[in-house]
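Q: Hi! First time doing this. I have a protein sequence and I read that you can turn it into a structure. Is that right? Here it is:
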Amino acid sequence: MSQALLLSGWRYRLLIGSVVCSTLAYLGASLWSGWSAVGDAISRVGWGGAIQVVALVLLGYGLRFLRWQVYLHALQHRLPWWPSLKMYLAGFALTTTPGKAGEALRGVLLKRWGVPYADSFAALFSERLSDLFAMVMLALVGLSGHREWLPPIVICLLVLISSVVLMAHEPFLAAVAKRIDARSGWFFRMAQGAVHVFRQSRRCHTRYRLLGASALGIAAWSLEALAFYWIVQDMGLEIALASAAFIYAISMLAGAVSFMPGGLGSAEAVMVGLLVSGGAALGDAVAATVLLRLVTLWFAVGVGTVTLTSIRE
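A: Yes, that's right. Below is the predicted 3D structure, encoded as structure tokens:
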């Protein structure tokens, strides 16, 4: 199926319509619940602060794109940086899907450049693992003040390490593939595809690539954590940088584990709860959370939607 068919007609209108409706619904619910507090937070942050925060977020996008290029190069696909960047950003249009699965749209766009779906999915899977690892590392930065979160963080870290180890263990994947190949049905066909993706992903996780990609991921998400810190500082909230990084990382992990679209609801609830437990007023906590999500999640959706529209034209 061609890219033109997949991104034309009712499919394209449904995609854009779903993004617009989810954005308006989120903004409406968030601002209705704390319109005056959010307005006051925006005035306290100011245009200068907003520009600085957006600059941090954009720089983070750049680092994540470099990581994406590392993965594509590992899979033997050396795309020109400009079309590759546009396809990468276009994936943000579907960030508000469970586990960001909609970002697999990049696979449809990359198919035009001769990248098999298995390879694009392998790059996306590697990116998700790297993102989770970066969040766990950021959470560890401020863990000293939140010891009660140690067990879930350790569990997340062990799951990530186990995933990489099993993915690198060919005898294990071969045994799984042998069992699957002997079965029939749609479920086992999907399982066969998943095993193939895992095998391709191993090429993205050689020792040096793993270190480099992890460093890029940690740096990129640290910039968003820093943006959160700047927001709460501009609002006059007394929160240390390490604590801000912890609150941001735990909230994003909660959103990922909930598997809600874009972590909607769960990430916000955890962030507000942690801010309030740290001494912030409820109105300020809600305002800071909404403001952060506007300049990170919804800004990404907007950038992705605009980029996707330009690719289609």
